[in-house]
């Protein structure tokens, strides 16, 4: 064990006691001799930690009588008016693009409401009120409705041979909340984490907001470079790797089964949690994708997040996360209890009854066909331009590269002027570098809007591109 | 401006760039001369910051060529297995007490479901599906449904002359989420905040989880000691004061109007946000309580949190927060967008239609009477014991002091054995000190359960107390 590690351990221990107010203003700190004995470190290590804390004005020394807790000095806020407060908050870029109403909506990876089972889902709502007349007068448990967890766990066991059980599940208000809870439970400022490059932009924003040290893993049409991942895990000892291995957002790529298995082994070896976000696996076009990475997990290193609601009823905001390790789950339950004390029960019950109905399967089958048709229309229109993309076998998005000289970030303003929206690649890049990639979702606009909108968009880019070349 | 402040500013600036990965491994830092010029500080200040960062192993120096970003050293996690992760997470004590099912439920400050408008609220649900057939297939905006915000803002204007508008409102998934969002937006580890003593235990847990430096303000039957508050604001420059001034939880005390006005003046003077949590003001017994502190705010220093759902339909999990300062709201919207991207639309629409109905007013009037009767029964039974409490004029709780030698924390285990639950005072104490106070809620148990349960509880305490005296 190296000296820096021990030093940091002592430093953090003392600082935490002070911050939690266990050791209060002008309290005497343990003597260097005693703390060194308690923590089984060298006395010089404690001295070094005390010296740094003294330099940072957290403690002070009195000759011969030792070290004491400094009164907290908040002078750093002396000159702050309220507007300064916002410096604490990281932007959520995607939600800002979505605010703009457009006719050709290719930025939202949401299903067209006309493809959703609006009419008959209200039958299930009435059923819920008949079955549970007091559903609105009680809270759900923090972990989520027992009946729903049973139904979901049964589904995972049948569908993927996951051998999970209802205790392993936590119901959340959408998958975004699931990621947010994980970030709060397991990542603090300066902690290193791995993200795919590109990645889901809201996840990037969340981890940046915490001040995590983000290291990126490239994702390719064939999956990952596992040597790169092993190197990064070895070198940086990341706390977690947030990944989206099935019809990846935004690229649409899928990580093959052999890599899934090896990734779990690496995660176990380097004690790195894998956060598998699975939003799209039911939206496949020709054949079913590989089973989740979670199915290879034997030691609780994978937290699996599944959201069904995107293609059933996004308005319900119900997702589920799953993990096999008790202490991981315990942390998540606690964070959930602090965040909102449990997702609304009504939403869970409505979801339960629709989810366990035979109508769901029929709906999903129809939806796959409708989305495949939209994808094909978008690809056909795009083939008129000289752009690059890998045709995905599922999901809601095309990840398209424009000719090199074009920045898609700059293009967005012009596109919105023409009532077209998309997600520029830079937003999906954890490193936020300028990019000639963009994400086009084919799930929200209908066939006609896709045809017209893509033609209009190609015109815009080609006009703009020729200007750019001239300039 | 003192040197420590400038030093910290430079130190934080450099560290943030490194943590956000804007300055990467082995990148050269700006020269001391340049950074000093950019930040308008003395070169020695920059040198001091670089030296500390070097000591902390975040940067390294090369002779004559300057300072460079160190590769991140994560060796501190070398020995950590997953269970260590839970050390990041603070317990939520209250939710653990609530997990235990008991016959005499005095720990949950929730309304008995039998007093809630279960039967006719389902009419509103059907109405919602008729009015908005696609309510389940769309997301709410991050800020919350426009129609609901209009209705609520109209209500606040009529009820309290608040002169608010729909843009000032943010809809949240329960008031617990509102507090959680505020904590995330405005408080970081080591920041000083004020909490009442005692206070709402989940709020205490949330601020502790962030690592805030918590300073307490005593609350008395007559309100606060404003000199104490001024002294604390002056000395500690707290970022915010979380308070619950109307039928305060757990004590039931109400802060009088004159103090409300002065508190806002203090908050403005010392730039301290006031977080006014108002859950109980509609549950008054004889006369209406003073108008919210928010009504005295002229400069956006108050964030007002209102939850109606507790006495309408807790299962909906709808609350609202309000603030008059644009940059404060902007921070909150961003944090909300990261946390869950907006509360479920269905729940907002159901709430809207019930909230704007005439049935609501009738329901609340009946509820006040029912709860006052339960309170009086509980007080009558309690009068058999020689315990102390101040009879509240509203809210859901009695705050009772047992004879001095009894710790209510120890008592809880014995009470639960007898199927009685309550909240021990220690849980409501931000300083977590042993206490002979306890919170008894009269809102959940019915009349008969209150009578029987309190008698049983007095027997238990008196038996236990005599043992304690003997020991």
Automatic annotation (TrEMBL), chains A, B:
Residues 4-72 form the HTH gntR-type domain. One of its GO terms (molecular function) is pyridoxal phosphate binding. Its cofactor is pyridoxal 5'-phosphate. SMART domains: HTH_GNTR. Gene3D superfamilies: Aspartate Aminotransferase, domain 1, Type I PLP-dependent aspartate aminotransferase-like (Major domain), Winged helix-like DNA-binding domain superfamily/Winged helix DNA-binding domain. Pfam families: Aminotran_1_2, GntR. The keyword Chloroplast does not apply. SUPFAM superfamilies: PLP-dependent transferases, Winged helix' DNA-binding domain. PANTHER family: HTH-TYPE TRANSCRIPTIONAL REGULATORY PROTEIN GABR. In the C-terminal section; belongs to the class-I pyridoxal-phosphate-dependent aminotransferase family. This is GntR family transcriptional regulator. It comes from Neobacillus cucumis. The lineage of its organism: Bacteria, Bacillati, Bacillota, Bacilli, Bacillales.
């Amino acid at each position: 064990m190296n000296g820096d590690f021990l030093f940091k351990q002592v430093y953090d221990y003392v600082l935490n006691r002070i911050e939690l107010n266990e050791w209060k203003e002008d309290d005497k700190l343990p003597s260097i001799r005693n703390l060194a004995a308690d923590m089984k470190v060298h006395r010089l290590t404690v001295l070094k930690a005390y010296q740094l804390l003294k330099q940072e004005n957290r403690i002070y020394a009195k000759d011969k009588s030792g070290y004491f807790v400094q009164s907290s000095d908040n002078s750093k806020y002396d000159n702050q008016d309220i507007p300064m407060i916002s410096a604490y908050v990281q932007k959520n870029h995607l939600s800002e693009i979505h605010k703009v109403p457009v006719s050709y909506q290719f930025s939202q990876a949401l299903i067209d409401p006309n493809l959703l089972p609006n009419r008959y889902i209200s039958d299930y709502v009435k059923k819920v009120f008949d079955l549970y007349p007091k559903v609105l007068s009680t809270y759900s448990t923090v972990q989520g409705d027992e009946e729903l967890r049973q139904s979901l766990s049964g589904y995972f066991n049948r569908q993927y041979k996951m051998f999970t059980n209802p205790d392993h599940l936590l119901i959340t208000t959408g998958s975004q909340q699931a990621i947010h809870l994980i970030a709060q439970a397991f990542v603090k400022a300066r902690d290193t984490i791995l993200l795919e490059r590109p990645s889901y932009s809201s996840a990037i924003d969340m981890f940046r907001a915490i001040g995590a040290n983000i290291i990126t893993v490239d994702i390719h049409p064939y999956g990952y470079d596992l040597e790169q991942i092993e190197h990064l895990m070895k070198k940086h000892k990341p706390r977690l790797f947030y990944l989206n291995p099935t019809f990846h957002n935004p690229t649409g790529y899928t990580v093959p089964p052999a890599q899934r298995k090896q990734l779990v082994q690496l995660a176990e070896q380097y004690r790195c949690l894998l956060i598998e976000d699975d939003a799209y696996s039911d939206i496949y076009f020709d054949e079913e994708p590989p089973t989740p990475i979670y199915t290879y997990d034997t030691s609780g290193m994978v937290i699996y997040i599944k959201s069904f609601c995107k293609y059933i009823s996004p308005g319900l905001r119900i997702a589920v996360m799953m993990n096999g390790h008790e202490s991981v789950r315990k942390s998540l339950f606690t964070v959930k209890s602090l965040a909102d004390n449990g997702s609304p029960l009504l939403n869970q019950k409505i979801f339960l009854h629709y989810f366990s109905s035979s109508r769901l399967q029929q709906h999903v089958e129809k939806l796959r066909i409708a989305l495949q048709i939209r994808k094909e229309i978008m690809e056909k229109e795009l083939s008129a331009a000289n752009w690059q993309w890998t045709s995905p076998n599922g999901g809601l998005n095309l990840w398209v590269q424009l000719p090199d000289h074009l920045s898609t970030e700059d293009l967005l303003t012009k596109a919105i002027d023409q009532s077209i929206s998309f997600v520029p690649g830079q937003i999906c890049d954890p490193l936020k570098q300028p990019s000639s990639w963009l994400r086009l979702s084919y799930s929200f606009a209908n066939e006609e809007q896709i045809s017209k909108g893509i033609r209009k968009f190609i015109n815009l880019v080609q006009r703009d591109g020729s200007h750019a070349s001239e300039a």
